[in-house]
Design a protein that fits this description.
The complex is a heterodimer of chains A (about 55) and B (about 500). By secondary structure, chain A is mainly α. Chain A has helices at about 5-25, 35-55. Chain A has one domain (about 5-55). Chain A is built from 2 helices and no strands. Chain A is elongated and about 65 Å long. The mean pLDDT of chain A is about 85. Chain B contains 23 helices and no strands. Chain B has helices spanning about 10-15, 30-40, 45-55, 60-85, 90-95, 95-100, 100-140, 150-165, 170-195, 200-205, 215-230, 235-240, 250, 255-275, 280-290, 290-325, 325-330, 335-350, 360-385, 390-395, 410-425, 440, 445-465. The longest helix of chain B is centred in the N-terminal third of the chain and has 38 residues, at about 100-140. In chain B, about 55% of the residues are buried. Residues about 1-5 and about 480-493 of chain B have low confidence and may be disordered. The chains are: A mainly alpha (about 55), B mainly alpha (about 500). The interface between A and B is large, with 34 and 45 residues.
């Protein structure tokens, strides 16, 4: 029950959760190709659109 | 020995450096959007809009605000929110994977401590000028931008900030819930007042207030660069907010609504008001925009909102400093740390108040650093590690972690950082505004970001594996090992 041992055990537990997600490729809400395409298109439209309109 | 209080691990993870589990994260899409927007809609938006008005008229200014902010925010959030949103790690703990333990401390001092001290001085002086403007509105007092009222009030604002932060975070939340909605109302009223006096076409035809060059293209690109610096200036803070979001998607998209769109809206209001009223200083144009009553309310509120922003950034910076620093700093009392942190901004207010009028110079200097940091982060996380981070290495004690690099520093990342910073200053000197032809096509932040990323990638591929640094996956590895790690022993044991 010593705090530093509790913390080490807690950190181990947290790392294992992420290792299991990594192994099973189970990442709910992860960014995917649709997100990256959307943000690229959005940026291009904003940059080119406002450049043409404003300058 | 068995009578210790049980440790609340979820709370410790939230306030400490261990990875937050998805089930513990408190912010969904709209909660993070609100927090993000509340951070963005602060008085600095008026300052940045006013600075933009110096270089270009409103039409070009709106374009510069949108272009600069979207590019800066996108690159800053790619390198921070995406990894911190995936693994729930504290931002500067995550940076151990590319800079080493001591390297991430060095980056913290450069990017957070210096930036916070500069902003405390600028916002303190803005508070001082608001009080000076209020005094001018309510009495026969003639305002003086660097007079004793401004300096004394600025000093008082930093002192008040220090006192509130020394008392702890409970009062901070109350201020935050009031300020952002009220600032939106004030912005709406300002926009209405400006548009009721000028048609949109008239506004768009107004000239720049003080264009430094004859070449319109150079002035436009400086305006873009100032706004890109504003976008990049979120780099030191935004990762630690993103880790509180439920997943990676929730950690990324609210930034587009908050620190891009909401901040841009505030800057556009500042730009239009500065252009229409002929002064880039918000504390000056607020006294002219809507008569005595509105001037008093707006200036009084801006003074209050400044102190709230100052409290936020000072509190966040000191919490981070305590987590990252060695034992000596951790054992130092909270109050003493606050006092030490406030000395430099107080000295700037008293002896170098010119930082306020040239605040965009300070902002652009920070971008020389932040753009290179973003480039290194993107190269390391996306291209070298292919979005997979070994948490066991990240939290292993520094003696055995592959992220020890060389004495806790990654020389490759530091060389890339210096190169990115240097190319920025060569392409565009923030102090003198001297620039190359290349700057008028590419800005300075983008080459800095790209060069730092390329150097970090190239040198890591060439040297890191031979030197045993960083546990980078092989170029043709399709799978980064997640388990089977030799490094044991934890940094918080």
């Amino acid at each position: 029950s010593e705090p530093h041992i509790q913390r080490a055990q807690d950190l181990e537990r947290r790392i294992r959760v992420y290792e299991q997600m990594e192994e099973s490729h189970d990442w709910p809400g992860a960014l995917n190709a649709v997100d990256y395409t959307a943000m690229t298109l959005m940026t291009l439209v904003l940059v080119i659109g406002f450049y043409v309109w404003g300058y | 020995m068995a009578n210790h209080e049980p440790v609340n691990h979820a709370l410790e993870a939230e306030r400490g450096d261990t990875p937050l589990l998805p089930s513990e994260r408190m912010w969904g899409f709209w909660e993070f959007t609100y927090a993000n927007s509340a951070l963005a809609i602060a008085t600095w938006a008026f300052l940045i809009g006013g600075a933009t008005a110096l270089f270009v008229g409103p039409k070009e200014g709106i374009a510069a605000i949108v272009i600069g902010n979207i590019l800066g925010v996108l690159l800053a959030t790619f390198s921070t929110c995406v990894p911190c949103g995936k693994y729930g790690t504290e931002q500067f703990t995550f940076l151990r994977s590319m800079f080493g333990g001591n390297g991430s401390r060095l980056v913290y001092v450069l990017a957070v401590v210096f930036l916070t001290m500069g902003w405390l001085a600028v916002l303190g002086l803005m508070f001082g000028r608001s009080i000076d403007g209020l005094t001018g509105l309510l009495s026969e007092h003639k305002t003086d931008p660097n007079g004793w009222i401004v300096l004394a009030s600025g000093f008082f604002a930093i002192l008040l900030t220090g006192i509130v932060v020394a008392k702890g975070p409970t009062s901070i939340k109350v201020f935050n819930t009031i300020v952002a909605p009220a600032l939106i109302v004030i912005m709406g009223v300002m926009l209405y007042m400006i548009l009721s006096k000028h048609s949109f076409a008239e506004l768009m035809a107004l000239p720049a207030l003080d264009a430094p060059f004859d070449d319109k293209r150079v002035n436009f690109m400086i305006a873009v660069e100032v706004n890109m610096a504003a976008g990049f200036s979120w780099w030191p803070y935004i990762g630690n907010l993103a880790r509180l979001s439920k997943n990676q998607r929730t950690a990324f998209w609210p930034n587009i609504i908050g620190i891009f769109a909401a901040a841009s809206l505030g800057e556009v209001v500042g730009l239009l008001a500065a252009s229409a009223l002929g002064d880039s200083d918000p504390t000056v144009w607020m006294t002219h925009i809507g008569g005595l009553t509105f001037g008093v309310i707006a200036l009084g509120f801006v003074a209050f909102a400044n102190v709230t922003s100052m409290i936020n950034i000072l509190y966040t910076s000191i919490v981070g400093l305590r987590q990252l620093a060695g034992r000596k700093l951790r054992e130092m009392s909270w109050e003493l740390l606050v006092v030490l942190f406030c000395i430099t901004p107080m000295a700037i207010v008293l002896f170098a108040p010119g930082i306020y009028d040239g605040f965009f110079i300070f902002l652009v200097w920070t971008s020389a650093l932040n753009s290179a940091l973003a480039g290194i982060g993107i190269a390391d996380y996306f291209f070298l590690r292919r979005q997979r981070l070994n948490l066991r290495h990240l939290y292993a004690s520094e003696g055995v972690s592959p992220f020890r690099f060389w004495k806790g520093f990654n020389p490759i990342a530091l060389v890339a950082l210096v190169a990115g910073f240097a190319i920025y200053v060569v392409v565009f000197n923030p102090q003198t505004l001297a620039n190359t032809t290349f700057f008028t096509f590419a800005t300075a932040s983008l080459p800095s970001c790209l060069l730092a990323g390329l150097i970090h990638y190239g040198l890591t591929r060439a040297l890191a594996r031979q030197l045993g640094w960083g546990a980078y996956p092989k170029r043709d590895d399709s799978k980064t090992e997640a388990l089977g790690l030799n490094a044991k022993g934890y940094s918080n044991e």
